[in-house]
């Protein structure tokens, strides 16, 4: 009933994505993948390396098109860059030749918001991600965690209803990462956009998300299982892992994930063996 | 050790370092001066007693004398300032146009695959011919004025800038482009705010070499036929067995080139101030 009234934030239906590799051979990254993310839902996607987690995000953002199947955001089929979507990349994607305030105000400026207004709202967001006083620094003058905050502000200023995150904190050290996760949850709570958070770290996935989706090992990855994380919010990322309920969920999901990790690992070692044999 | 003593010790270490650095700099400059004295002095001593050598090879004291007469009394073809102005005008106008064309074409071909597929082979062929020869064609077609020299300079400058702009455009981090696109940038905004600033690292590197080409183009163009300019001055000195005159003109060109190099480095530091400071290394 509810689904008819308002379409889900993200809907992938029987999506297949094939690439042509450098050697010219076709490679199927995803096959028949179905994924629905509701409005305001925080969905984490976990899976072994090379299973097409990031590919899913590029399909939703419109950076890539599916080879078969359909992708819709808020009920509208995706063709070209999806409006109202934010994307946090694994590596730094903020522009190194723009100062912090110019980076954060880039989105509104691109969309034609007057300069004064854009800068004002950028300063606001810089303060909200805890970077007040760093407005005029260049990215190379900031730490890795600070650059992630700039990227976060750069996305949030556009008030996206959908945020896609591709292992955004994987390059950070463990403590900074936990702090960033807490701040991400606090900021997310303000406007509650739908989030798809790709990670290979199951602990991070459970600590952050409402649902955890496990992908099978590639090639031709698809969804293996979907788990609800019914831990209460607000959560403190560093402490929630001691919660007995957290451990229960972790065991459940790990059972599903382990076989896929084993398959992915044996594939990679078999490739090594083949190479050695030839 | 108290905090005060520690502070005193830090200051002592710092000033010792500074003294050592200063001593090192003085040593480098003194050695440079010695090299100059040995080379120029050796030249002077070897040549000065042989009138034939003085005429054929020139001599440092003669070059200095020639420069003084040019400054005080003017050259055989007019005041020295006019000759420098002519050559500089040709080089600078050609450099500006050639650079602009190189950047526009390089970025356009780097961004639009279809354009690079169509024009790529043509540009390779044009780059393969010895372009300096085009100077003769330009002088025949456009006369002895500055137009023919400017054209030659443009042709020489264009390719270096073009290839760097093209490569720089191709090397832009895909994530920057994707990110800007998702933030709402149009294709033109991606080009002007992501691709161009990123490619500037490459383009500026080519400007150092290109300005040298601009001077060469202007001088060679003047060799081929002109009424004023440093190239004419050199040709005229050569025609009158005045080796000192040729050397003197070269000294002037070197000063101009160094001044331009200094300006380009200033521009580079200004445009690329977003980059982390380079690690200290030998300054060449």
**Helix content range of chain B:** over 70%
H/E series of chain A, N to C?
HEEEHEEEHHHHEHEHEEHH
Count the helices of chain A. How many?
A: 10
Strand order of the largest sheet of chain A: 6-7-8-3-9-10
- Unreliable spans of chain B: 279-284
Following the backbone from N to C, one meets helices and strands of chain B in this order, namely HHHHHHHHHHH
Query: Any idea of the CATH class of the largest domain in chain A?
Result: Alpha Beta
CATH topology tier name of the largest domain in chain A: Rossmann fold
Count of separate structural domains of chain A: 2
- Please state the average pLDDT score of chain B: 90
CATH H-level name of the largest domain in chain B... which superfamily? MetI-like
Q: Looking at the chains present, what oligomeric state does this protein adopt?
A: heterodimer
Structural class of chain B: mainly alpha
Radius of gyration from the alpha-carbon trace of chain A, in angstroms: 19 Å
CATH class value of the largest domain in chain B? Mainly Alpha
How far is the first residue's CA from the last residue's CA of chain B? 44 Å
**Reported CATH architecture of the largest domain in chain B:** Orthogonal Bundle
InterPro entries (chain A): AAA+_ATPase (IPR003593), ABC_transporter-like_ATP-bd (IPR003439), ABC_transporter-like_CS (IPR017871), ABC_transporter_ATP-bind (IPR050166), P-loop_NTPase (IPR027417)
GO molecular function (chain A): ATP binding; ATP hydrolysis activity
Organism (chain A): Kutzneria buriramensis
Keywords (chain A): ATP-binding, Nucleotide-binding, Transport
Brief summary:
Chain A: Keywords: ATP-binding, Nucleotide-binding, Transport. The complex is a heterodimer of chains A (278) and B (284). Chain A is α/β, with parallel strands linked by helices and 278 residues long.
């Amino acid at each position: 009933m509810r689904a008819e009234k308002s379409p889900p934030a993200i809907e992938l239906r029987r999506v297949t994505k094939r690439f042509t590799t450098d050697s010219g051979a076709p490679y199927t990254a995803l096959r028949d993948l179905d994924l629905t993310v509701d409005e305001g839902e925080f969905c984490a996607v976990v899976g072994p390396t090379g299973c097409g987690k990031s590919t899913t995000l590029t399909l939703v953002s419109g950076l890539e098109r599916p080879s078969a199947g359909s992708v819709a955001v808020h009920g509208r089929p995706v063709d070209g860059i999806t409006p109202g979507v934010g994307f946090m990349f694994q590596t730094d994607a903020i522009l190194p030749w723009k100062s912090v305030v110019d980076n954060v105000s880039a989105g509104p400026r691109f969309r034609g918001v007057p300069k004064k207004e854009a800068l004002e709202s950028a300063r606001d967001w810089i303060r909200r991600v805890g970077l007040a006083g760093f407005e005029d620094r260049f990215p190379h003058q900031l730490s890795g965690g600070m650059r992630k905050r700039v990227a976060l502000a750069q996305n949030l200023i556009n008030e996206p209803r959908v945020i896609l995150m591709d292992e955004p904190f994987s390059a950070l050290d463990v403590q900074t990462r936990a702090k960033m996760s807490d701040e991400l949850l606090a900021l997310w709570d303000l406007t509650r956009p739908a989030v798809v958070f790709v990670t290979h770290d199951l602990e991070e996935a459970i600590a952050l998300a409402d649902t955890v989706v496990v992908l099978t090992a590639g090639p031709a990855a698809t969804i293996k299982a979907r788990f609800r994380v019914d831990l209460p919010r607000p959560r403190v990322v560093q402490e929630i892992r001691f919660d007995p309920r957290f451990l229960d969920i972790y065991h459940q999901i790990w059972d599903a994930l382990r076989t896929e990790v084993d398959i992915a690992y044996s594939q990679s070692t078999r490739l090594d063996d083949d190479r050695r044999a030839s | 050790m108290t905090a005060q003593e520690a502070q005193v010790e830090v200051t002592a270490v710092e000033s010792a370092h500074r003294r050592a650095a200063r001593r090192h700099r003085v040593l480098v400059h003194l050695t440079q001066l010695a090299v100059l004295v040995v080379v120029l002095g050796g030249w002077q001593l070897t040549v000065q007693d042989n009138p034939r050598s003085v005429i054929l090879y020139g001599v440092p004291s003669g070059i200095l004398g020639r420069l003084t007469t040019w400054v005080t009394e003017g050259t055989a073809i007019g005041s020295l300032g006019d000759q420098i102005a002519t050559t500089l005008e040709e080089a600078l106008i050609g450099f500006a146009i050639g650079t602009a064309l190189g950047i526009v074409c390089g970025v356009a071909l780097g961004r639009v695959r279809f354009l690079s597929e169509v024009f790529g082979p043509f540009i390779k062929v044009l780059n393969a011919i010895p372009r300096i020869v085009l100077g003769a064609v330009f002088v025949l077609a456009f006369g002895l004025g500055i137009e023919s020299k400017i054209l030659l300079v443009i042709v020489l400058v264009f390719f270096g800038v073009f290839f760097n702009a093209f490569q720089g455009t191709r090397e832009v981090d895909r994530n920057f482009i994707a990110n800007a696109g998702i933030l709402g940038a149009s294709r033109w905004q991606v080009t002007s705010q992501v691709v161009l600033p990123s490619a500037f690292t490459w383009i500026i590197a080519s400007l150092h070499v290109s300005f040298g080409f601009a001077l060469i183009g202007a001088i060679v163009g003047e060799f081929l036929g002109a009424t004023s300019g440093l190239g004419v001055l050199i040709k005229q000195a050569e025609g009158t067995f005045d080796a000192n005159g040729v050397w003197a003109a070269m000294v002037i060109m070197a000063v101009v080139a160094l001044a331009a190099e200094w300006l380009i480095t200033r521009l580079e530091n200004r445009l690329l101030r977003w980059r982390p400071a380079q690690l200290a290394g030998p300054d060449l």
